[in-house]
Amino acid sequence: MKKPRIGMVGLGNIAQKAYLPILAKETNWSFEGAFSPSEDKRKSICSQYRIQDFSSLQTLADQCDAVFVHSSTSTHFEIVSFLLTLGKEVYVDKPLAATIEESEKLVELAIKHDRKLMVGFNRRFAPMYVAAKEQAKNIASIRFEKHRMDSIGPNSYEFTMLDDYLHLVDTARWLTNGDLNVIDSTINVNNENNLIYAGHLFKSELNVPIFTEMHRKAGTNLEKLELVAEGAIIRVKNMNTMETESNNQLSISTALSWDTTLKQRGFEDCINHFIDCVQNDQKPEIDGEEGLKSQILLNQLLET
């Protein structure tokens, strides 16, 4: 089977930390190169990874079958629509686009051109979250927290919700395999409109309560998922430690010693899933429509 030719748009923090180290391995694809409007950054990073630096989006697209888009959210619509129209398969960071309207148009465009459009919700592929979901039988309640040590500002609370809290919303939707109803909402902001705390109660279609919360100055960086299920309480901390209480006993498992942080956080399997879908002509698990649903739910939280 022919290896897909992969390109990248945008060379910011997430691209450098999470995607370049994996894509540069060229496991079952060829990494053609990258484009960024910042020439100095483009030349420096592409030289570091020994890949071609493209001077325009068009020249990059001409050499690729699929493109990873890691540019700023405000540019997603313009870049993704350009690539889809050219017939390219696209993986884009969450959120799909800056507004619901733009995201809807991208979903329609992907359908029109029969192209794959995947949104990068890496937590759906984090091995311990996948294991917790598989092990939990007849889930009675879910609590998902994502706290930061000291990260209030400088962006508006709306930006932080769409940029970071969206992970909680999407993971909650994935864990319950369906739509969620908003039951209660608490959002605390300061005088500069920066998010301090957000907490929400949802209920699933099966009447399962889901609690999500985030404090931007909690004194520690902590991400914790807790599933109360039939016969077991399962907790996953920071995506690398799982605690299971069952039969009145506690068992603790940690990530495999050879698993990288990117593997633990789901990036490796997320990337491989998209490329597998490109190679085998399959629909991504988290396609544009699924990403749009999470964004619509997040938008409801901003309006409550």
Automatic annotation (TrEMBL):
This is Virulence factor MviM. GO terms for molecular function: nucleotide binding. It comes from Gottfriedia solisilvae. InterPro entries: Gfo/Idh/MocA-like_OxRdtase_N (IPR000683), Gfo/Idh/MocA_oxidoreduct (IPR051317), NAD(P)-bd_dom_sf (IPR036291), YceM-like_C (IPR048477). Residues 5-121 form the Gfo/Idh/MocA-like oxidoreductase N-terminal domain. Gene3D superfamilies: Dihydrodipicolinate Reductase, domain 2, NAD(P)-binding Rossmann-like Domain. Residues 127-247 form the YceM-like C-terminal domain. It comes from the Bacteria. Transmembrane segments: none annotated. Pfam families: GFO_IDH_MocA, YceM-like_C.
